[in-house]
Amino acid sequence: MRLGSRRSPMALSQSGDVARLLTERTGRRVEIVGVTTLGDVSREQLTQIGGTGVFVSALRESLLRGEVDFAVHSLKDLPTGAAEGITLAAVPPRDDPRDALVAREGAKLADLPAGARIGTGSPRRAAQLALLRSDVTAVPIRGNANTRLAKVRDGELDAVVLAYAGLARIGHTDLVSEIFEPEDMVPAPGQGALAVECRTDDTELAELLATIDHPATRAAVTAERSLLAALEAGCSAPVGGYATGVAGTERLHLSGVVLGVRATSFQPGVLDVGPAAGRMVVRERGEADAADAIRLGYELAARMLALGAADLMRGENSDRNDAHD
Ligand SMILES: NCc1[nH]cc(CCC(=O)O)c1CC(=O)O
Hints:
It is an enzyme of class 2 (transferase). One of its GO terms (molecular function) is hydroxymethylbilane synthase activity. One of its GO terms (cellular component) is cytoplasm. The structure is a single chain. The protein is of the alpha/beta class. The chain has helices spanning 9-26, 38-41, 57-64, 123-132, 145-153, 164-169, 203-209, 215-234, 293-306; strands at residues 2-5, 31-34, 70-74, 86-90, 99-103, 117-119, 137-139, 159-163, 176-179, 194-199, 239-245, 251-259, 281-289. It folds into three domains: 2-92 and 193-213, Periplasmic binding protein-like II (D-Maltodextrin-Binding Protein, domain 2, 3-Layer(aba) Sandwich), CATH 3.40.190.10; 99-179, D-Maltodextrin-Binding Protein, domain 2, CATH 3.40.190.10; 219-321, Double Stranded RNA Binding Domain, CATH 3.30.160. The two termini are 23 Å apart. The model is unreliable at 263-279 (pLDDT under 50). The structure holds the ligand NCc1[nH]cc(CCC(=O)O)c1CC(=O)O.
């Protein structure tokens, strides 16, 4: 079976994990085929070359042309809309969904100097950093995780924020100085999870791939992406969304956050101030049966929009435009 993967170290590592898991479960041999995507070659700001999906479309085209049998993506990078002729055949067990800080000498966010420069291309991370420490500056950066880590090592930046799961996949959790709890920095919808896609008409393969599906992860990311899709339709502010199963039940808990760009000038500790005009953060939580994951996401979005999420900002909204991994 030919597995289509992006060529970054992170992508090849996660594709290798999926290949091993599949071989374990099905006894079938998997060959990894590297595919170069527009997101990997373009020097333009990702937002200028079409935003979401730049990492994903080349793999999907290669799938539809029959050059590969299935593809593995970071689930966080998938656009929320369905793709014609393509099925999400499996969502394997999720890795750590949290964001992590990498700074020299193990410095945590609180230890960084006043006015520290922290690299991230994600408005979601930039705004939440500002809420945690209003004096730091988020510096937009591009390039894959290794390139970003080098900017900290070389002193060009005081720190970077990256997904812990991505750092684990490239073998660099040793560089992590702080892991942000989801309450302090709500992860991007789908962060830490993988998507395994095949052609919709390839039902035999879809059945094989389903052996590595993890229903609890699928339910959680379904709720997160439903929240994101409904918010994307109503506003274009940075969005965090994170769902977990409620222990011992078939219930799902979902937290959402929408941030204003002016969160950078907002004071920490003044977050949940109600639906007052001009506030920079809308946070909501909800719970439902896991079977109702889609509805849980859009109902939470509706409440957030009613609380003013749509007014928070216009512009760039997603992690999917960030990092070449
Ligand atoms: N948009 C890039 C991207 N897509 C997935 C990951 C990390 C791994 C993951 O979330 O599964 C990253 C890099 C990052 O956010 O640090």
